Amino acid sequence: MNILVAVEELRIGGAQTFALRLAQALHNAGHRVYLYNMYWQFTEHDLVKRLAPDVELLQYKPASQPMDAFLMRAEGWLERRGQQFALRNGILRKHLNQVIKEKSIDIIHSHTFKCDHLITQVLRQIPRIAHVITMHGDYEQFLKFYRLGTAYVIPNYLQKLSEVLSRVNGIAYLSTQNLEVLQPDVTAVSTGHIRLRRIYNGLDAQISEEANLFTRKALEIPAEALVFGMVARGVPEKGWEPLVQAYQQVKAEATQPVHLVLVGSSAFLDSLREKYKADGNIHFLGFVNNPVDCVESFDVGVLASSLKESLPNSIAEYLFCKKPVISTTVGEIQQMITTPDGQEAGLLIEFPEYGLADGQQLYEAMAQYAGNKALLRQHQQLASQAFTKFDMKRCVQAYTELYQACQPEL
Q1: What are the structural domain ranges in the chain?
Q2: What top-level class would CATH report for the domain 2-202+391-406?
Q3: Count of C-beta atoms within a 10 Å radius of residue 377
Q4: CA-based angle 34:40:41, to the nearest 5?
């Protein structure tokens, strides 16, 4: 099959990382695969080269980059104020249509809502091409924003959602919470034509040559230290500061050295680095090209997110590296850390419906590992068993079957 894997951007993020890994795995399985990125400005080429080195990247290349950047900013500014200005979107549709014809595309597999909607607009006039989407959690997050009316809202979100659902042939979902947007009280269209499959993201991570930069020795962390770590986007809602505060409480009470390794990049994290610069046991590593290189130095991986996560990539990376998990009870996280025989490779805290993660609950979970080495060793052993569900070959097979099932009958 000729497959186009389409994304909104190619920067660090769970959906983007998975899309790249899947594209490469589909290529390895013998398909002809292309990547399409809506925003050439948001392309981390080192990330693309590392995760999908054999997949051709296709992007709209404007004659005037400054003008294109202006159009993008203008559209974003107006959208945040509930208005639309679709000039750049129209240019993208024309370019994407050209790509589909030149590459003889059979299947388009898109990731995240804005990209899904763009594909929908193009494929209205091309019924022969199957459209499959993966719901990564942004659909229900946008629905929450729409209902609250107090955060970033996509203009005419429900109308656009209905447009996507009326054209898409197949949906892969990660968690049952993703299906909230398919309920009759949300969408105005029938979804009976859509083939639904729960497919967990595959992960075929590898330790890179740069891993020696993040060893305990390189980070000046004692071998006997207990190391907690988190890999996530640098937004406050991931629970960075509650984690720092819980760590400090554990550190104050522990009988061994305790360190905290934070992997992510943003202005918010820069402000945290400045705020807690007096604590030499907190290691702000910033952006890291291959996060699993850092996870190797952890004892425990944490994701204290208050966002509606579905299948967080960082949790799979922790399990890949045989690290137990502390996280919130959201999406599929409990299922992610569960072994085939029903044991859990980690500790979960209550998911906060409003505000950030509960720092006290975080502290109590972290303190369990600090005070019980046998529990830590047991959960480390269970982590590799829990990881088996993320085998990439299993993921590719499931998607190939979905693609075949979604081929339109013309």
Answers
A1: 2-202+391-406, 209-390
A2: alpha beta
A3: 11
A4: 150
CATH superfamily, domain at 209-390: Glycogen Phosphorylase B; (3.40.50.2000)
Token look-up 């990376």 returns 317
Instruction: Give yes or no on whether 2-202+391-406 and 209-390 have one common fold.
Output: yes
Token output for 14: 């769970």
pLDDT tier, 85 (very low <50, low <70, confident <90, very high otherwise):
low
Confidence (pLDDT) at 80: 64
pLDDT above 70 for 326: yes
Mean pLDDT of 326-344: 94
Position 231 scores a pLDDT of 96
The contacts of residue 232 (CB under 8 Å, 6+ apart) are 238, 239, 240, 263, 264, 303, 305, 312, 314
